[in-house]
Amino acid sequence: MKKYIISVLLLFVMSTSAYAVRIKDLAAFEGVRDNQLVGYGIVVGLNGSGDSDQAYMQIRSVVTLLERMGVTVNVNQIKVKNVAAVMVTATLPPFAKQGNRIDVLVSSLGDAKSIAGGTLIMTPLKGADNQVYAVAQGSVLTNSFAFAGQGASAQKNHPTAGRIPEAALVERELPNTLAGKTTLRLNLNQADFTTATRIARVINEKFNAVVATNSDPGSVILKIPESYTNRTVEFVAALETLDVKPDNPARVILNERTGTIVMGENVRISTVAVSHGNLSLVIKETPQVSQPSPLSKTGETVVVPRTDLKVKEDSPRLTVLPEGSNIGDVVRALNALGVTPRDLISILQAVKAAGALQAELTII
User: Fold this and answer.
1) Cβ–Cβ under 8 Å, residues 285 and 307
2) Tens-digit pLDDT profile for residues 58-102
3) From CA 73, how far away is CA 67, in angstroms rounded?
Protein backbone atom coordinates (compact mmCIF):
# COMPACT_ATOMS: atom_id res chain seq x y z
CA MET A 1 0.00 0.00 0.00
CA LYS A 2 2.85 2.39 0.86
CA LYS A 3 4.57 1.66 -2.44
CA TYR A 4 1.34 2.36 -4.28
CA ILE A 5 0.93 5.72 -2.53
CA ILE A 6 4.48 6.75 -3.45
CA SER A 7 3.95 5.76 -7.08
CA VAL A 8 0.66 7.66 -7.36
CA LEU A 9 2.16 10.78 -5.77
CA LEU A 10 5.23 10.86 -7.97
CA LEU A 11 3.37 10.02 -11.16
CA PHE A 12 0.88 12.80 -10.31
CA VAL A 13 3.76 15.26 -10.14
CA MET A 14 5.06 13.95 -13.46
CA SER A 15 1.71 14.21 -15.21
CA THR A 16 0.85 17.72 -14.00
CA SER A 17 4.25 19.21 -14.86
CA ALA A 18 3.94 18.06 -18.49
CA TYR A 19 1.23 20.65 -19.23
CA ALA A 20 1.86 24.24 -20.25
CA VAL A 21 1.24 27.08 -17.81
CA ARG A 22 -0.09 30.58 -18.47
CA ILE A 23 2.40 33.42 -18.37
CA LYS A 24 0.33 35.16 -15.68
CA ASP A 25 1.01 32.18 -13.41
CA LEU A 26 4.75 32.19 -14.11
CA ALA A 27 5.57 35.87 -13.82
CA ALA A 28 4.29 39.27 -12.70
CA PHE A 29 4.74 42.76 -14.10
CA GLU A 30 7.15 45.03 -12.32
CA GLY A 31 5.30 47.42 -10.02
CA VAL A 32 2.09 45.38 -10.04
CA ARG A 33 2.11 43.91 -6.54
CA ASP A 34 0.32 43.87 -3.21
CA ASN A 35 1.13 46.33 -0.44
CA GLN A 36 0.97 45.59 3.27
CA LEU A 37 -0.99 47.81 5.65
CA VAL A 38 -0.94 47.92 9.45
CA GLY A 39 -2.71 49.86 12.17
CA TYR A 40 -3.34 49.98 15.91
CA GLY A 41 -6.90 49.75 17.19
CA ILE A 42 -9.14 48.63 20.03
CA VAL A 43 -11.84 45.99 20.16
CA VAL A 44 -14.82 46.71 22.41
CA GLY A 45 -17.84 44.74 23.54
CA LEU A 46 -15.96 41.79 25.02
CA ASN A 47 -17.61 39.82 27.81
CA GLY A 48 -14.95 40.35 30.46
CA SER A 49 -12.28 38.68 28.32
CA GLY A 50 -10.39 41.84 27.39
CA ASP A 51 -7.03 43.13 28.59
CA SER A 52 -6.42 43.28 32.33
CA ASP A 53 -5.57 46.41 34.29
CA GLN A 54 -1.90 45.49 33.97
CA ALA A 55 -1.98 46.45 30.29
CA TYR A 56 -2.23 50.24 30.13
CA MET A 57 -2.47 50.41 26.34
CA GLN A 58 -6.21 49.83 26.13
CA ILE A 59 -6.90 52.23 29.03
CA ARG A 60 -5.03 55.10 27.39
CA SER A 61 -6.63 54.26 24.06
CA VAL A 62 -10.12 54.43 25.60
CA VAL A 63 -9.31 57.75 27.28
CA THR A 64 -8.02 59.20 24.00
CA LEU A 65 -11.08 57.93 22.13
CA LEU A 66 -13.48 59.45 24.66
CA GLU A 67 -11.64 62.78 24.63
CA ARG A 68 -12.04 62.97 20.86
CA MET A 69 -15.77 62.53 21.42
CA GLY A 70 -15.89 65.30 23.99
CA VAL A 71 -15.90 63.12 27.11
CA THR A 72 -13.21 63.90 29.71
CA VAL A 73 -12.18 61.13 32.09
CA ASN A 74 -9.31 60.56 34.51
CA VAL A 75 -6.96 57.85 33.33
CA ASN A 76 -6.36 56.74 36.93
CA GLN A 77 -10.04 56.19 37.63
CA ILE A 78 -11.04 54.16 34.59
CA LYS A 79 -11.09 50.36 34.61
CA VAL A 80 -12.26 48.33 31.65
CA LYS A 81 -12.35 44.58 31.04
CA ASN A 82 -14.39 44.59 27.86
CA VAL A 83 -11.70 46.28 25.74
CA ALA A 84 -8.62 44.80 24.07
CA ALA A 85 -5.74 46.50 22.28
CA VAL A 86 -5.15 44.91 18.88
CA MET A 87 -2.97 45.17 15.79
CA VAL A 88 -4.85 45.26 12.50
CA THR A 89 -3.18 44.08 9.29
CA ALA A 90 -4.40 44.00 5.70
CA THR A 91 -3.14 43.58 2.14
CA LEU A 92 -3.89 46.30 -0.39
CA PRO A 93 -4.14 44.73 -3.86
CA PRO A 94 -2.78 46.53 -6.92
CA PHE A 95 -5.11 48.97 -8.68
CA ALA A 96 -7.49 49.07 -5.71
CA LYS A 97 -9.85 52.05 -6.03
CA GLN A 98 -11.41 54.33 -3.45
CA GLY A 99 -14.44 52.68 -1.90
CA ASN A 100 -13.24 49.11 -2.53
CA ARG A 101 -13.38 46.82 0.49
CA ILE A 102 -10.60 44.51 1.70
CA ASP A 103 -10.36 41.93 4.48
CA VAL A 104 -8.41 42.61 7.67
CA LEU A 105 -6.79 40.44 10.34
CA VAL A 106 -7.12 41.43 14.01
CA SER A 107 -4.61 40.15 16.59
CA SER A 108 -4.53 40.83 20.34
CA LEU A 109 -1.65 42.99 21.51
CA GLY A 110 -2.13 42.68 25.28
CA ASP A 111 -3.19 39.89 27.63
CA ALA A 112 -6.79 39.50 26.52
CA LYS A 113 -8.20 35.99 26.87
CA SER A 114 -10.44 36.28 23.83
CA ILE A 115 -11.60 38.86 21.29
CA ALA A 116 -14.46 36.72 19.98
CA GLY A 117 -17.67 38.67 19.56
CA GLY A 118 -15.97 42.07 19.87
CA THR A 119 -16.24 45.05 17.55
CA LEU A 120 -13.24 46.81 16.07
CA ILE A 121 -13.50 50.58 16.34
CA MET A 122 -12.54 52.65 13.29
CA THR A 123 -8.82 52.03 12.72
CA PRO A 124 -6.63 53.80 10.15
CA LEU A 125 -4.37 51.44 8.21
CA LYS A 126 -1.03 52.83 7.07
CA GLY A 127 1.55 51.71 4.54
CA ALA A 128 5.33 51.73 4.72
CA ASP A 129 5.31 55.45 3.80
CA ASN A 130 3.20 56.22 6.91
CA GLN A 131 0.26 57.29 4.75
CA VAL A 132 -3.30 56.15 5.51
CA TYR A 133 -4.61 53.93 2.69
CA ALA A 134 -7.65 52.34 4.32
CA VAL A 135 -9.89 52.52 7.39
CA ALA A 136 -11.21 49.35 9.07
CA GLN A 137 -14.19 48.74 11.34
CA GLY A 138 -16.50 45.82 12.03
CA SER A 139 -17.30 42.71 14.07
CA VAL A 140 -14.46 40.27 14.73
CA LEU A 141 -14.92 36.65 13.66
CA THR A 142 -12.61 34.13 15.33
CA ASN A 143 -14.45 30.80 14.88
CA SER A 144 -13.25 29.86 18.36
CA PHE A 145 -14.15 29.88 22.03
CA ALA A 146 -12.34 29.77 25.36
CA PHE A 147 -13.97 28.98 28.71
CA ALA A 148 -12.30 28.26 32.00
CA GLY A 149 -13.24 27.43 35.56
CA GLN A 150 -11.32 26.74 38.73
CA GLY A 151 -10.55 23.16 37.80
CA ALA A 152 -10.97 22.85 34.06
CA SER A 153 -10.88 24.81 30.81
CA ALA A 154 -11.94 24.35 27.21
CA GLN A 155 -10.67 26.07 24.11
CA LYS A 156 -11.20 25.74 20.37
CA ASN A 157 -8.89 27.26 17.77
CA HIS A 158 -7.20 30.58 18.58
CA PRO A 159 -9.51 33.07 20.36
CA THR A 160 -7.06 36.02 20.41
CA ALA A 161 -6.85 36.47 16.63
CA GLY A 162 -9.68 36.91 14.16
CA ARG A 163 -10.73 38.15 10.77
CA ILE A 164 -13.19 40.76 9.53
CA PRO A 165 -14.27 40.20 5.92
CA GLU A 166 -14.49 43.39 3.83
CA ALA A 167 -13.99 45.53 6.91
CA ALA A 168 -11.60 48.10 5.45
CA LEU A 169 -12.56 50.81 2.98
CA VAL A 170 -9.83 51.97 0.62
CA GLU A 171 -9.29 55.72 1.05
CA ARG A 172 -6.13 56.28 -1.02
CA GLU A 173 -5.27 54.75 -4.38
CA LEU A 174 -1.83 53.59 -5.41
CA PRO A 175 -0.31 55.24 -8.48
CA ASN A 176 -0.93 53.48 -11.79
CA THR A 177 2.42 51.92 -12.72
CA LEU A 178 1.36 51.01 -16.27
CA ALA A 179 0.02 54.33 -17.50
CA GLY A 180 2.10 56.11 -20.14
CA LYS A 181 4.81 53.44 -20.41
CA THR A 182 6.28 52.21 -23.68
CA THR A 183 8.20 49.29 -22.14
CA LEU A 184 7.27 46.82 -19.42
CA ARG A 185 9.31 44.37 -17.38
CA LEU A 186 7.97 40.88 -16.70
CA ASN A 187 9.61 39.34 -13.62
CA LEU A 188 9.60 35.53 -13.34
CA ASN A 189 8.51 33.97 -10.06
CA GLN A 190 11.49 31.60 -10.33
CA ALA A 191 14.46 32.71 -12.40
CA ASP A 192 15.37 30.22 -15.12
CA PHE A 193 17.24 30.72 -18.40
CA THR A 194 15.14 28.23 -20.36
CA THR A 195 11.77 29.43 -19.06
CA ALA A 196 12.63 33.09 -19.71
CA THR A 197 13.70 32.26 -23.28
CA ARG A 198 10.52 30.29 -23.92
CA ILE A 199 8.35 33.15 -22.66
CA ALA A 200 10.07 35.63 -24.97
CA ARG A 201 9.73 33.27 -27.95
CA VAL A 202 6.02 32.66 -27.35
CA ILE A 203 5.31 36.39 -27.04
CA ASN A 204 7.20 37.23 -30.23
CA GLU A 205 5.34 34.50 -32.12
CA LYS A 206 2.04 35.88 -30.82
CA PHE A 207 2.64 39.43 -32.09
CA ASN A 208 4.81 38.37 -35.07
CA ALA A 209 7.47 40.90 -34.06
CA VAL A 210 10.41 41.31 -31.71
CA VAL A 211 8.38 42.47 -28.74
CA ALA A 212 10.10 40.54 -25.95
CA THR A 213 13.81 40.33 -25.18
CA ASN A 214 15.72 38.69 -22.32
CA SER A 215 17.92 40.80 -20.11
CA ASP A 216 18.56 38.11 -17.51
CA PRO A 217 17.05 34.73 -16.47
CA GLY A 218 14.68 36.44 -14.04
CA SER A 219 12.95 38.96 -16.31
CA VAL A 220 11.66 39.65 -19.81
CA ILE A 221 11.65 43.16 -21.31
CA LEU A 222 8.52 43.98 -23.33
CA LYS A 223 8.24 46.78 -25.87
CA ILE A 224 4.63 47.78 -26.41
CA PRO A 225 3.80 47.60 -30.15
CA GLU A 226 2.56 50.70 -31.93
CA SER A 227 -0.80 49.05 -32.51
CA TYR A 228 -1.26 48.93 -28.72
CA THR A 229 -0.26 52.53 -28.00
CA ASN A 230 -2.40 53.85 -25.10
CA ARG A 231 -3.88 50.35 -24.86
CA THR A 232 -1.52 48.87 -22.28
CA VAL A 233 -4.25 46.91 -20.52
CA GLU A 234 -5.28 45.19 -23.75
CA PHE A 235 -1.64 44.39 -24.52
CA VAL A 236 -1.13 42.79 -21.10
CA ALA A 237 -4.38 40.83 -21.41
CA ALA A 238 -3.30 39.50 -24.81
CA LEU A 239 0.01 38.09 -23.61
CA GLU A 240 -0.64 36.92 -20.03
CA THR A 241 -2.90 34.07 -21.17
CA LEU A 242 -0.28 32.62 -23.52
CA ASP A 243 0.79 29.09 -22.57
CA VAL A 244 4.43 28.30 -21.81
CA LYS A 245 5.93 25.05 -20.59
CA PRO A 246 8.27 25.98 -17.72
CA ASP A 247 11.57 24.21 -17.29
CA ASN A 248 12.49 23.35 -13.73
CA PRO A 249 15.74 21.89 -12.39
CA ALA A 250 15.79 18.24 -11.39
CA ARG A 251 15.00 18.24 -7.70
CA VAL A 252 14.04 15.70 -5.03
CA ILE A 253 12.33 16.97 -1.86
CA LEU A 254 12.61 14.86 1.30
CA ASN A 255 10.78 15.41 4.58
CA GLU A 256 12.05 12.95 7.15
CA ARG A 257 9.54 14.05 9.79
CA THR A 258 6.52 13.03 7.72
CA GLY A 259 8.16 10.56 5.33
CA THR A 260 7.15 12.64 2.30
CA ILE A 261 9.08 12.29 -0.96
CA VAL A 262 8.43 14.47 -4.01
CA MET A 263 10.32 14.21 -7.31
CA GLY A 264 10.32 16.45 -10.35
CA GLU A 265 9.90 15.09 -13.86
CA ASN A 266 13.55 15.74 -14.77
CA VAL A 267 14.98 13.44 -12.08
CA ARG A 268 17.29 10.78 -13.51
CA ILE A 269 19.23 7.96 -11.87
CA SER A 270 22.37 6.17 -13.03
CA THR A 271 22.87 2.44 -12.72
CA VAL A 272 23.70 1.61 -9.12
CA ALA A 273 23.46 -1.43 -6.77
CA VAL A 274 21.66 -0.86 -3.46
CA SER A 275 21.47 -3.09 -0.38
CA HIS A 276 19.28 -2.03 2.51
CA GLY A 277 18.75 -4.07 5.69
CA ASN A 278 17.02 -3.37 9.00
CA LEU A 279 18.27 -4.21 12.45
CA SER A 280 15.60 -4.78 15.12
CA LEU A 281 16.44 -4.74 18.83
CA VAL A 282 13.77 -5.76 21.37
CA ILE A 283 14.43 -5.43 25.11
CA LYS A 284 11.80 -6.74 27.53
CA GLU A 285 12.05 -6.28 31.29
CA THR A 286 10.17 -8.85 33.44
CA PRO A 287 11.41 -8.44 37.02
CA GLN A 288 10.54 -11.21 39.50
CA VAL A 289 9.82 -10.76 43.19
CA SER A 290 11.47 -13.22 45.63
CA GLN A 291 10.08 -13.28 49.16
CA PRO A 292 10.51 -15.59 52.19
CA SER A 293 8.10 -18.38 53.06
CA PRO A 294 5.01 -17.60 55.17
CA LEU A 295 5.64 -17.37 58.97
CA SER A 296 9.38 -17.26 58.31
CA LYS A 297 11.34 -15.31 60.91
CA THR A 298 14.28 -14.58 58.64
CA GLY A 299 14.74 -13.41 55.07
CA GLU A 300 13.54 -10.41 53.17
CA THR A 301 11.69 -9.62 49.96
CA VAL A 302 13.92 -8.77 46.99
CA VAL A 303 13.31 -7.94 43.35
CA VAL A 304 15.29 -10.06 40.93
CA PRO A 305 15.80 -8.32 37.53
CA ARG A 306 15.19 -10.36 34.41
CA THR A 307 15.87 -9.07 30.92
CA ASP A 308 14.96 -10.71 27.62
CA LEU A 309 17.06 -9.42 24.73
CA LYS A 310 16.28 -10.27 21.10
CA VAL A 311 18.19 -9.05 18.09
CA LYS A 312 16.82 -9.58 14.60
CA GLU A 313 18.38 -8.44 11.37
CA ASP A 314 16.51 -8.76 8.09
CA SER A 315 18.37 -10.43 5.29
CA PRO A 316 19.56 -7.59 3.05
CA ARG A 317 18.86 -7.80 -0.66
CA LEU A 318 21.27 -6.42 -3.22
CA THR A 319 19.18 -4.80 -5.93
CA VAL A 320 20.46 -3.18 -9.10
CA LEU A 321 18.68 0.04 -9.97
CA PRO A 322 18.99 0.45 -13.74
CA GLU A 323 19.51 3.79 -15.36
CA GLY A 324 16.15 5.53 -15.65
CA SER A 325 15.21 7.66 -18.64
CA ASN A 326 12.15 9.20 -16.98
CA ILE A 327 10.56 9.52 -13.57
CA GLY A 328 8.38 6.45 -14.15
CA ASP A 329 11.47 4.28 -14.53
CA VAL A 330 12.97 5.81 -11.38
CA VAL A 331 9.81 5.12 -9.35
CA ARG A 332 9.56 1.52 -10.53
CA ALA A 333 13.22 0.91 -9.74
CA LEU A 334 12.92 2.34 -6.23
CA ASN A 335 9.68 0.49 -5.52
CA ALA A 336 11.42 -2.77 -6.45
CA LEU A 337 13.35 -2.51 -3.19
CA GLY A 338 10.13 -2.98 -1.20
CA VAL A 339 11.02 -0.44 1.49
CA THR A 340 9.01 2.10 3.44
CA PRO A 341 9.08 5.81 2.59
CA ARG A 342 11.39 6.54 5.53
CA ASP A 343 13.83 3.86 4.37
CA LEU A 344 13.60 5.30 0.87
CA ILE A 345 14.77 8.66 2.20
CA SER A 346 17.98 7.05 3.49
CA ILE A 347 18.46 5.22 0.20
CA LEU A 348 18.08 8.38 -1.85
CA GLN A 349 20.62 10.17 0.33
CA ALA A 350 23.08 7.33 -0.15
CA VAL A 351 22.45 7.21 -3.92
CA LYS A 352 23.06 10.95 -4.09
CA ALA A 353 26.31 10.57 -2.13
CA ALA A 354 27.39 7.89 -4.61
CA GLY A 355 26.83 10.32 -7.49
CA ALA A 356 24.10 8.19 -9.10
CA LEU A 357 21.18 10.58 -8.48
CA GLN A 358 21.18 13.24 -11.17
CA ALA A 359 19.13 15.76 -9.26
CA GLU A 360 19.32 18.32 -6.49
CA LEU A 361 18.49 16.77 -3.10
CA THR A 362 16.61 19.11 -0.75
CA ILE A 363 15.76 18.09 2.83
CA ILE A 364 13.03 20.08 4.60
Assistant:
1) yes
2) 778 888 888 888 888 877 777 788 899 999 999 999 889 999 999
3) 8
pLDDT digits (tens, 9 = 90+) for 278-294: 555 455 656 676 666 66
- List for the chain the helix, strand, coil content (%; round to 5): 20, 35, 40
Q: How far is CA 337 from CA 11, 228, 316, 347, in A?
A: 18, 59, 10, 10
Distance, CA of 82 to CA of 79 (rounded, Å): 9
Under CATH, to which class is 20-31+177-244 assigned?
alpha beta
Integer-rounded Cα Rg, in Å, for the chain is 32
Beta strands per DSSP E along 140-270: 145-148, 153-156, 161-170, 183-188, 212-216, 219-223, 243-244, 251-255, 260-263, 268-269
Domains of the chain, residue spans: 1-18+246-283+307-364, 20-31+177-244, 35-170
State whether residue 257 is helix, strand or coil. Answer: coil
27's CB contacts (< 8 A; 6+ apart) are 186, 187, 188, 189, 199, 220
Nearest by Cα to 252 from 242, 244, 261, 260 = 261
On the CB side of 181, CA atoms within 13 Å amount to 18
For 233, the 3-state DSSP assignment is helix
Query: What is the pTM (predicted TM-score) of this model?
Result: 0.69
Burial of 339 (0-12, 13-18, 19+ CB in 10 A): buried
Of 218, 215, 170, the C-alpha closest to 192 is 218
